[in-house]
From TrEMBL:
Localization of this protein: Membrane
Sequence intervals crossing the membrane: 20-41, 61-83, 109-134
An example molecular function term from Gene Ontology annotations: G protein-coupled receptor activity
Gene: Adgrg4
One GO-annotated biological process of the protein: cell surface receptor signaling pathway
Coiled coil: none
Domain G-protein coupled receptors family 2 profile: 1-153
Membrane topology designation: Multi-pass membrane protein
Record-level GO cellular component terms: plasma membrane
Record keywords: Membrane, Transmembrane, Transmembrane helix
Identification of the protein by name: AGRG4 protein
Length: 153
């Protein structure tokens, strides 16, 4: 859906309908945040599968992942819309090219808080999960090598 909204965004912005543009910018923002959120959930799943291998049972795990994956971005979008729906709009990058219009976030502060900071938080989470998983794999490998040396002796 992120790809579809991205590809149709410029074409739909050419109709110069503010409501349509706000809808497209909102959908684009939502699906972008949803993609980031699902990426974070994948790293959490990776952590649970490789580090917390045994005795990990989360009741209704898939339901909770779906609520987080689709709900957290919805909360961010709802907050932006509640504060001011005019944060979304049609931004022209070039006056000489009428096809350069694109419906997106118009306020820089909102962009940096709701996209860049959101991505940075998820990037830090993914990096921490990755380092933890690498450490776990390395420690398992080290323990296996020590055991094999003891058996060889």
């Amino acid at each position: 859906m992120l790809n579809m909204t991205f590809l149709t965004n410029s074409w739909l912005s050419s109709f110069n309908q503010p409501g349509l543009c706000i809808t497209m910018a909102t959908l684009l923002h939502y699906f972008l945040l949803a993609a980031f959120t699902w990426m974070c959930l994948e790293s959490v799943h990776f952590y649970l599968a490789l580090v917390k291998v045994f005795n990990v049972y989360v009741p209704k795990y898939i339901l909770k992942c779906c609520i987080a994956g689709w709900g957290i971005p919805a909360i961010v979008i709802t907050l932006v819309l509640i504060i001011n729906k005019d944060f979304y709009g049609n931004g022209s990058h070039s006056e000489s090219n009428p096809y350069s219009n694109f419906c997106w976030i118009q306020d820089n502060a909102v962009f940096y808080i709701s996209v860049v900071a959101y991505f940075f938080l998820i990037f830090l989470t993914n990096t921490a999960m990755f380092i933890t998983v690498l450490h776990q794999i390395h420690s398992v490998k080290s323990r296996t090598q020590k055991r094999s040396r003891v058996w060889q002796q």
